[in-house]
Amino acid sequence: MLEKKQLHELFIITGKIDNVSAVNINMLKNHILSNWTLNNRVSDNDFKFEHDYSKVPYHQHIQWVQDYIRDHYRIEYGRTLCPIPKNSVAGIVQTENEKINTHNHIDAFDLHGSPDVSCLYCVHSGEKQTSVTFDYNDGRRKGWSWRVPIKAGQFILFSSDLNHYIELTSLYVTRSKYDINNFLATRYLPIKTVEEIYQSKQYHPSLELFEMLANGPKHPEDESDYFQRYLAREEFQQVILNEMGKNDVDVIVYPTTSIPTPSREELDKRK
């Protein structure tokens, strides 16, 4: 007889709180913003990631968000998440052109009191793409990452020891619609634009990233910070090229995603 013991698990779970829930996202957003303006930070130390977070007093809608996620997690996985202490809820407001640096939610000075699971719930994402990038090692290979787009009403449940950050250099949503429309315009196809595909609903409902780029700008230069983000990307590319030159590397081959692309059958199950 075989018996398996799970010693440790790294995971990322994404979901969305249904509109039928009692959660009023606008009320919750105003509650977070009103406390953000008080400058009541979790930490006064500029060098700690907690300085980017503001303390958020208990609110009934926060409780409802927690109840929704805990209930669905229990139904899906048969395990119960501990409730979040009322004094440990924090909010973060990412202003335009601001990057949230890499961090995790483990306190090196209080390992026992650190949470096993963390949750990020998005109350507002604006018109631009917002995504969280998680860095991890899988035991054999190091330096892997997984990028998770997120918009208002969605949540990410993840292992607290996963390093994560919100970056500035991505231009995927900013450029994609413009580039795809230019490509479609050169082909003899019944549909000529991303907007037509989006409005006709002729795409798989699981393609949330497509919905984000469909609502992106028609031209990348319509974004006020496009050139700043473009330069940030160019600087990053130059760093990579410099390192390749230093180490006499001609080619870097890597997977574009850390998780295999799901099959059509797997996608259809998510409808």
How would you characterize the overall build of this protein?
With 271 residues, the chain is α+β, with helices and mostly antiparallel strands. It folds into two domains: 12-166, Jelly Rolls; 172-269, no CATH class. The protein is 31% helix and 15% strand. It has seven helices and nine strands; from the N terminus they run βαβαβββββββααααα. The longest helix is centred in the C-terminal third of the chain and has 21 residues, at 226-246. The chain starts with 11 loop residues before the first strand and ends with a helix. The mean pLDDT is 81.
Gist of the model:
This protein has 271 residues and is α+β, with helices and mostly antiparallel strands. It has helices at 25-36, 60-77, 172-185, 194-200, 208-214, 226-246, 264-269, and strands spanning 12-16, 54-55, 90-91, 100-103, 117-121, 131-136, 144-149, 154-159, 163-166.
> What is the number of independent domains?
2
Helix content: 25-40%
Which CATH top level class of the largest domain fits? Mainly Beta
CATH fold annotation of the largest domain: Jelly Rolls
Q: Output the radius of gyration.
A: 21 Å
Mean pLDDT across all amino acids: 81
The overall strand count is 9
Question: What pattern of helices and strands is seen along the backbone?
Answer: EHEHEEEEEEEHHHHH
Label the CATH architecture of the largest domain.
Sandwich
Strand content: 5-15%
Main sheet, how many strands, which sense, barrel? 4 strands, antiparallel
Low-pLDDT runs: none
Structural class: alpha+beta
First-last Cα distance: 38 Å
Strand order of the largest sheet: 4-9-6-7
Number of helical runs? 7
Name the shape in a single word: globular
